[in-house]
Write the structure tokens for this entry.
Amino acid sequence: MSEIVVWDGIGHTFLGVIRALLPLLVLFMIFQFLVLKLPRSYVFNLLKGTLLAIAGLALFLQGVSTGFFPAGQYMGEILGAIRAQWLLIPFGLMIGFLATWGEPAVRILGSQIEEASGGSVRKKVVVYAISAGVALSVALGMARIVYGIPLLWIIIPGYLLAIVMLQFSDKRVIAIAFDAGGVATGPMVVTFVLAIAVGIASAIEGRDPILDGFGLVSLVALAPILTIMVVGLILRVKLRKEEE
């Protein structure tokens, strides 16, 4: 890939990141002058950190749009042409786990949960649970594309199961579970895994890239909710046994 293609549209990417972060920075400055009154050194450090965040996000998004997305779509087109299409299901299991394992937001959530719980819920438990949930959802999404399963046949029972599990889960676990569903749908999964799904759907005869390729993100958002609540129920049963 040439340098011109790699840096094409970088200015637009920087402007998009600045527009996204500027309202937060303005809100902080308003609170700083009216309420917080933090030392100047703290404010300067925050501004320097904001500049680093803008540069990092812009470069990350540029790399994703010029690297992960085209690569994922090309991989999907090749994989969709194989004869043994059932192999796409274990492939989805593997790629879903790896993409989520490398998702920065998932690791941040795990660290915050470990800190907030005083170490009772380990970061690695959260990361493994979310990654396993996404892996299963991507595998299910691949099966949906291969066998032409309607999305509603999966989504509706999935959310009904989540509603039932709400009645038996701890309130703290429920809050963590629904946040996990949000962080799992980060740039790694959306740009790479979704691109693969669209590429596969476009390569399989009789499949519509829009109808069959998209919808994977909705499965990815649902799966961590279920897996985190399952982990919460297991820990709850384990604690009861220890108390008895």
